[in-house]
Amino acid sequence: MQLPTPVAGKRIAYGADSLQFGELRVPEGKGPFPVVVVIHGGCWLSQYNYQYMNHVSAALTKAGFATWNIEFRRVGNQGGGYPGTFQDIAQATDYVRELAKQYPVSGKDVVVMGHSAGGHLALWAAGRKSLPRNSPLYNKNPLKVKGVVSLAGIPDLTTYSSEKGSCNTAVEKLMGGLPAAVPQRYAETTPSPSLALKTPVRMVQGARDPIVPVSQAQNFVNHSSSKKNKAKVVLLPEAGHFDLVSPVSPVWPTIEQAVRELLEKRK
């Protein structure tokens, strides 16, 4: 089903590069509204951009959430790949603090949502506090978020890079090498399952996804048997890869509810 193009959000630069911007959408009303940072996928490659998450952003805003749909340098863009892609994601996420000074949005009620490669980046953004100080990706005061909604995300880059599929070879391009060649880069950019001991995570996954296997979500969640593990797999038996980013799909209410639950959690 072809949806009409949603009204554009307010385009705001978070950095000096032409690709360092986001679109902010704010619900009608007084606020301050909780914020969903929206990170698009597309194999981390330059030919896919933020616009395919416009419908998701508009639907979430209609549901009462401010959305910050971010663009960033990707593989194929000057400065894209490691470390630039990750530095942009960090900078854009932390920029919510600045948005909260100028718009009726809350810098303390934030969920990060990403699709596919963007799901990987969303998980990474939420767990940056554990990065070593000598990493080029280190930031001493990353924005604390209420949770992560990973839509067909790819947390295990090492495994994914060794498998065959339409997106798998992009990992080597993103990282500047395979795991054996640049192990430290993979260590710094692979979201740790320990994130879920402190931050609630929803790994939303379609069982009929031909691009990202269900095992990516299951292995991330099952990594820890601790009772403190706040990660859950939300398995959608009939969903494919792109059903998760279509507000008219039967699974959309489940995704919207996942966001709502994370923002309503007080701990």
From TrEMBL:
<dbReference type="GO" id="GO:0016787">
    <property type="term" value="F:hydrolase activity"/>
</dbReference>
<feature type="domain" description="BD-FAE-like">
    <location>
        <begin position="28"/>
        <end position="221"/>
    </location>
</feature>
<dbReference type="Pfam" id="PF20434">
    <property type="entry name" value="BD-FAE"/>
</dbReference>
<dbReference type="InterPro" id="IPR029058">
    <property type="entry name" value="AB_hydrolase_fold"/>
</dbReference>
<dbReference type="InterPro" id="IPR049492">
    <property type="entry name" value="BD-FAE-like_dom"/>
</dbReference>
<dbReference type="InterPro" id="IPR050300">
    <property type="entry name" value="GDXG_lipolytic_enzyme"/>
</dbReference>
<keyword id="KW-0378">Hydrolase</keyword>
<protein>
    <submittedName>
        <fullName>Esterase</fullName>
    </submittedName>
</protein>
